[in-house]
Design brief:
Helix content is 28%, strand content 20%. By secondary structure, it is an alpha/beta fold. Among the domains are: 125-282, 3-Layer(aba) Sandwich (Rossmann fold), CATH 3.40.50.11540; 375-444, no CATH class. The strands form four sheets. It has a six-stranded mixed beta sheet. Strands 2-8-7-4 form a four-stranded antiparallel beta sheet, with no helix packed on it. A hairpin with a 6-residue loop joins strand 15 (326-331) and strand 16. The chain is globular and about 65 Å long.
């Protein structure tokens, strides 16, 4: 079977897919849920409940009123004990709805909690987009961009192909892998729904060849779904990034400052397709997701179906507790994930994994002088010069950083990974992106 990949840059970190053979387990709902009102890219949702209110599972508790925002629903049944600030995964205290969970769960009317699979899609394009919006569906690959907005194609733009991202190129993470194996039919119906919402007749599911079971299973299943095909991909990081995936599958390059729409496609995550199925076919909002809990010293690496708002400590406890030699706990994978400073932070819609790193492997190299080896430039999948962008950010040369396309950086960490001098390239570039982004927004206003 022919395999594909992108051509510019990329690296091959150790895969460490420790939990790939661990079936998804449902984690028990904790006694308290801490539900952030911002779990998506865009404006925070507006809280609709008050302290003391009784809420049902799946009830709308915060509405996304801005164009780019998303609804938030109660992930459990219980009483709203408070609406207050609480540490999130960034370490900052953010507004959250705190729910004291009842012993008996009561679902909001109209939500189908059955296990039967519904393949017929009797909805028009506009109805699909509206249902996805109502159910608060966002991209589950990490960016958490509201899915309904992706389906609202502007006048003058034409989409030909839907790409489903089943790459999961981050080391350690296996949540999408398990979804593709265990929920394939529902996911494929979700792909059909997205196709109908976009008005396209072709969808391609990209999966790296380190998941041969998922490639084989979905290839067989997709035969019963017209217009859907599976594209096996060579293993290379960061192939799961939108622009690299488009290059790998369609051999099209998204120009600097442009979007996948500009080359005729939309990219959505495999887990998102499952969430879309549940939203449209079952009227089920996005209140839970599969999270990988893993690490070389974790006693029971696993994939857990977790309610949003669950404290991360509960996931680590389920996996056997925090090993004694733990140096860092990361939300996400080791390349693009963020270190946590508290395990009280809750799971959100964008939490794909919890990685516990050993003390030794969590330490950064001692920073040394740049030796001008150009390795960071060679591996950059966006064709940038990371050493230069980092220096410009360090010296606060924002105009130069903008001219050298700092905003094109996808923050994949390939430069940091390959730097023999241990220089904090990505840290500086992130600062540069933040500053230049603010300058650009101010200029437009």
């Amino acid at each position: 079977m022919k395999t594909f990949t992108f051509t510019l840059g990329g690296i091959h970190p150790e895969e460490n897919k420790i939990s790939e053979h661990s079936p998804v387990e449902r984690l028990e709902i904790p006694g308290q849920l801490f539900v952030p009102i911002t779990q998506h890219l865009g404006a925070p949702a507006k809280v609709l409940v008050n302290k003391g209110d009784q809420v049902k599972t799946g009830q709308l508790i915060a509405r996304g009123e801005a164009f780019i925002s998303a609804n938030i629903h109660a992930p459990g049944t219980g009483k709203v004990s408070k609406i207050d600030v609480h540490p999130d995964q960034s370490g900052y205290r953010k507004t959250m709805v705190v729910i004291d969970v009842d012993e008996t769960e009561v679902w909001e009317d109209g939500i189908d909690t059955g296990t039967s699979i519904i393949r017929s899609i009797p909805y028009a394009k506009e109805e699909i987009i509206q249902k996805i919006k109502e159910m608060g569906i966002v991209g589950l690959g990490g960016a958490t961009f509201p899915t309904h907005v992706k389906l609202m194609i502007p006048d003058g733009k034409k989409v030909e192909t839907l790409i489903i991202n089943g790459v999961e190129c981050e080391p350690y993470l296996t949540s999408d892998h398990r979804v593709m194996l265990e929920r394939a039919e529902e996911m494929l119906v979700g792909v059909q729904i997205l196709m109908k919402g976009l008005g396209v007749n072709r969808a391609v599911i990209g999966i790296e060849k380190n998941k041969p079971d998922a490639i084989a299973h979905l290839s067989t299943m997709a035969a019963g779904f017209p217009g859907i095909e599976v594209a096996p991909l060579m293993v290379k990081y960061p192939q799961g990034a939108e622009k690299q995936l488009i290059k790998s599958i369609l051999n099209r390059e998204v120009p600097s400052g442009k979007l996948p729409l500009d080359v005729g496609c939309v990219v959505s995550n495999a887990g998102t397709a499952l969430a879309v199925y549940e939203a449209v076919q079952k009227n089920k909002p996005l209140i839970e997701r599969v999270v990988t809990v893993t690490g070389k010293n974790v006693k029971h690496p696993c994939n857990l179906l977790v309610r949003v708002g669950t404290p991360i400590q509960a996931l680590i406890d389920k996996a056997g507790g925090l090993p004694e030699n733990s140096g860092k706990v990361i939300s996400g994978g080791p390349m693009m994930g963020k270190a946590l400073n508290t395990l009280e932070a809750p799971v959100t819609k964008g939490t794909s994994g919890i990685l516990v790193m050993q003390q030794g492997e969590s330490l950064r190299k001692e920073v040394q002088n740049c030796i001008r080896c150009a390795k960071c430039t060679q591996v950059c999948p966006m064709g940038l010069e990371p050493y230069l962008l980092a220096q410009e950010a360090k010296l606060e040369k924002w105009d130069m950083a903008e001219a050298d396309k700092v905003m094109d950086c996808i923050e994949c960490g390939s430069c940091l990974y390959t730097c023999p001098s241990g220089r904090p390239l990505l840290d500086y570039i992130r600062v540069g992106k933040s500053k230049v982004g603010n300058i650009i927004r101010t200029r437009k206003n």
